[in-house]
């Protein structure tokens, strides 16, 4: 595939012992009353520290299942997931999560919501105040720190959720379709806000979206999954440096990468018959 220098391939003999996050031959089968559901057939990839990696693929292909297993919230049926060489076996206290619904506590202020993980982990909340203030400034929410969630827009609530996910300096931030409930204009703004935030925080992140353009704009790497039985069929290193500006979305290369991913997903739909 010399036509696509951004498409990555990995030799199976590669030494993976030094990998930051290593997903090794992972498969997940759910046993249900209606039979086995092969949620993830084969996932095998490594993630470097500091990379922003997005999973894209058709609905039901196992993206959230894979993320849950990485977070230790679920276990692989076969295979292993290792962080710094240690198998992830339980939910990680050092991981941050952001979901489609911001799930903020309505009776708490923005600041109290951001600091909530510190409160529940019984750490010294005062010590984390400067970091909460920094994150709120970076996301343009500092002036709203004393407001309650009901007084915020949907995009602002998601930004609060992202600050909350970052407050304890997580080793990994996982975001499962955080912007999918937002309107298109707010979503564009959120993409820019998240890209700007990433220029500052440079955390390792795993992100799930159905938007191919969002995936390419935000990510260092995009992993494309097929419909069930799902596998990762492409591994793309997005060839744009950071900081990223909105204008790259108009460039032919950006559109070429998006078209390539779209084509791969459509082709996988045509060749995979989803199980019940
Ligand atoms: N706890 C469970 N028990 C049984 N089946 C499950 C369970 N969790 C997920 N599944 C099934 O596994 C498959 C993958 O689900 P998953 O939510 O991981 O997909 P997804 O790619 O994140 O979907 P979407 O893009 O629609 O959010 C689906 O068929 C789903 O119904």
TrEMBL record:
Keyword GTP-binding among record annotations: no
Source superkingdom: Bacteria
Protein name as annotated: NitT/TauT family transport system ATP-binding protein
Any matching Pfam family: ABC_tran
Family: Belongs to the ABC transporter superfamily.
Keywords, ordered alphabetically: ATP-binding, Cell membrane, Membrane, Nucleotide-binding, Transport
Residue ranges constituting the ABC transporter domain according to the UniProt record: 21-252
Organism: Paracandidimonas soli
InterPro entries in the cross-refs: AAA+_ATPase, ABC_transporter-like_ATP-bd, ABC_transporter-like_CS, ABC_transporter_ATP-bind, P-loop_NTPase
Gene Ontology terms, MF aspect: ATP binding; ATP hydrolysis activity
């Amino acid at each position: 595939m010399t036509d696509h220098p951004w498409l990555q391939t990995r030799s199976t003999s590669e030494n993976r012992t030094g990998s930051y996050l290593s997903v090794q031959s992972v498969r997940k089968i759910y046993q249900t009353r209606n039979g086995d559901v092969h949620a993830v057939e084969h996932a095998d990839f490594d993630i470097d520290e500091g990379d922003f990696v997005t999973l894209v693929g058709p609905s039901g292909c196992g993206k959230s299942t894979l993320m849950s297993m990485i977070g230790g919230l679920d276990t692989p049926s076969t295979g292993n997931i290792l962080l710094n060489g240690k198998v992830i076996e339980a939910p990680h206290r050092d991981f941050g999560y952001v979901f489609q619904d911001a799930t903020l506590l309505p009776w708490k202020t923005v600041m109290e919501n951001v600091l909530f993980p510190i409160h529940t982990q019984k750490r010294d909340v005062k010590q984390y105040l400067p970091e909460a203030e920094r994150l709120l400034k970076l996301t343009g929410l500092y002036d709203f720190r004393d407001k309650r969630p009901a007084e915020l827009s949907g995009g602002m609530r998601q930004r609060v959720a992202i600050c909350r996910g970052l407050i304890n300096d997580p080793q990994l931030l996982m975001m499962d379709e955080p912007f999918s409930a937002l309107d298109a204009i707010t979503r564009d703004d959120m993409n820019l806000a998240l890209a700007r935030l990433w220029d500052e925080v440079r955390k390792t992140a795993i992100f799930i979206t159905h938007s191919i353009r969002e995936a390419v704009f935000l990510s260092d790497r995009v992993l494309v999954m097929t419909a069930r039985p799902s596998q990762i069929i492409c591994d793309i290193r997005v060839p744009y440096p950071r900081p990223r500006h909105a204008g790259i979305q108009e460039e032919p290369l950006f559109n070429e990468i998006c078209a390539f991913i779209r084509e791969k997903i459509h082709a996988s739909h045509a060749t995979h018959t989803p199980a019940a």
